[in-house]
Amino acid sequence: MALIEQNYRDQGNLREQDAIDLERYLLLKDRAPLTGRGVPFFSGREAEISAFREMANGLSLGDGANATIVAEGPPGAGKSALMCQFMEEMRSLPPTETGRRRWLPVPLSAESAESPSHVADAIDKAIITCLARDLLATEGAARPPGEAATSVERLSEYWGRLDAAGAKAKAREFFDRGGSVLGFSLGVSRQGPPTSINEAAERRSNAWQRWQIVLMIDEAQGIAPGKPHEGKGTLSALHQGLIKAPVSFCAFGLPGTLVALADVNVSRLMDGRTIRLGGLEAAAAKQTVKRCFNAFAVDGGGPWQEAVLKRAANWPQHLAIYLNAAIRQIHEASPDRMDAGTADIKAAMRLGDRGRARYCRQRVARIRRHHGGFEKLARELVPSLRERGGWLPYSDLFDLVEEVGLRTSTLSGASATQFIQDAELSGFLALDAEEASYSMPIPSFAGHLLSEPLPE
Fold first, then answer.
1. Strand pairing report for 430-431 and 438-439
2. What whole-number distance in Å separates Cα of residue 35 and Cα of residue 32?
3. Which helix (H) or strand (E) element contains residue 67?
4. How far apart are CA 85 and CA 83, in angstroms?
5. 246 in Cβ contact with 208 (< 8 Å)
6. Among 7, 280, 398, 414, which is 20 to 30 Å from 40 by CA?
7. Exposed e or buried b for every residue in 373-406, given b needs 16+ CB within 10 A?
8. Alpha-carbon torsion 92, 97, 103, 109, what sign?
9. How distant, in Å, are the alpha carbons of 134, 150, 368, 392, 441 from that of 386?
10. CATH 3.40.50.300 location in the chain
11. CATH of region 368-449
């Protein structure tokens, strides 16, 4: 039977992860902190978290094959925030039914994902970090009998035989040195680097079997086949459940992530395990704003919340930008009482506008990276896309790009296929969940390209 309620519902109340210090929040400028401990004011994404819980229940009951989730979406759609929320979910899960394993999220770069030695070292570092924290936590708090001893015993897998005092000293050194493994590295052991993830798992079988390990791969569109000396098929083996270790993975990236995974033989994804992120539902966006204003005890913030929602148009990155601008303006006007009535709402929105413009300029720079004419081509396409309701099958979009590119001479020396790929990566275009048609996902992007005035 499942260990957790699979159908996640966001209750809308402030949570522990929302408790961020005001001064720290204001330093963030345009985004929430990605700490892996849950993103403050995160709202919605109920279907996505339910999909993760379904996967977690399967893993808990011993079903390791195809335990893979892939989330892709345009820049600013909240992929990294969702990754952090998955990690927060993992830390709250009870031990698995099979093997009574503790859950262990392991952040991993896309560049390292196909390297058995890099994957193994990332897992080892995450295990050591968790055990070292457990060990040091026993100094100032009452812990169950034997917990410190268990941590010392498990750390001996990496650091050799130590008594409790020696292990605590080494744990402090571990954190002081920024997470250095203090001389241990599976990749440079006497046996040399492992040539496959199976070999790495066999070497670490005793240490890994106590954990339910989930690799969390950010910017996963950068995944590429491993170099000859790094081995191949690492993620494919994990995806198919072919290794004798409790390791699976979730991948988060820009459009093209699914293609990158297919290039390393990860393509047979289960229904419901492919997530395409876009804007938030209106209710979730409203909840995000409400949580933020409630967390900082803003008085009289009703009109401000409405202004933020109107400007942000339910886009996660824009919500972060305008919320930060609003809270900053209110704090500067009334630092002791957070009275919104004393602050200039128009000044706050102008501050947010500047942040949104920076975001859009970054997207424009990305769209013209391969061809200088692509920016003008995107601008010329906006009216036609709007006339068609914003949704076009690939074949119609391809024809439209070629037609407009020929008419405006903006496709010279480049292909419509290259433009569409760059338009996806920049956030100008996105494929819908059924892979049937394309739309313009970021509400502000088209308006920025056409230099349209923002609403009052």
1. antiparallel
2. 9
3. none
4. 5
5. yes
6. 7
7. bbbbbbbbbbeebeeeeeebeeeebbebbeebbe
8. negative
9. 56, 62, 21, 10, 12
10. 45-276
11. 1.10.10
Structure-token pair, residue 414? 């480049």
Record the tokens describing residue 109, joined without a space. Answer: 């770069």
CATH 1.10.10 positions along the chain are 368-449
**Distances from the Cα of 446 to the Cα of 133, 317, 380, angstroms:** 48, 16, 10
Q: What is the pLDDT of residue 227?
A: 65
Q: What is the pLDDT of residue 455?
A: 74
What is the pTM assigned to this prediction?
0.90
Written out in words, the top-level CATH class of the domain with range 45-276 is alpha beta
Residues 6+ apart with CB under 8 A from 95: 101, 102, 103
Q: Which residues contact 244 (CB under 8 A, 6 or more apart)?
A: 198, 201, 202, 205
pLDDT of residue 86: 94
pLDDT of residue 157: 85
Q: Largest Cα–Cα distance of the chain, in whole Å?
A: 77
Residues 208 and 244 sit within 8 Å (Cβ to Cβ): no
Q: Which residues of the chain fall short of a pLDDT of 70?
A: 1-2, 29-37, 139-148, 181-190, 227-232, 433-435
Amino acid (1-letter code) at residue 91: R
What are the two backbone dihedrals, phi and then psi, of residue 127, each rounded to the nearest 5 degrees?
-65, -45
Residue range 310-324, pLDDT digits in tens: 999 999 999 999 999
Model pLDDT, residue 63? 76
d(CA 256, CA 417) in angstroms, rounded, equals 13
Reading the block at residue 439, the tokens are: 């739309």
Give the C-alpha separation, 254 to 380, whole Å.
24
CA neighbor of 249 nearest in space, from 108, 150, 450, 43: 108
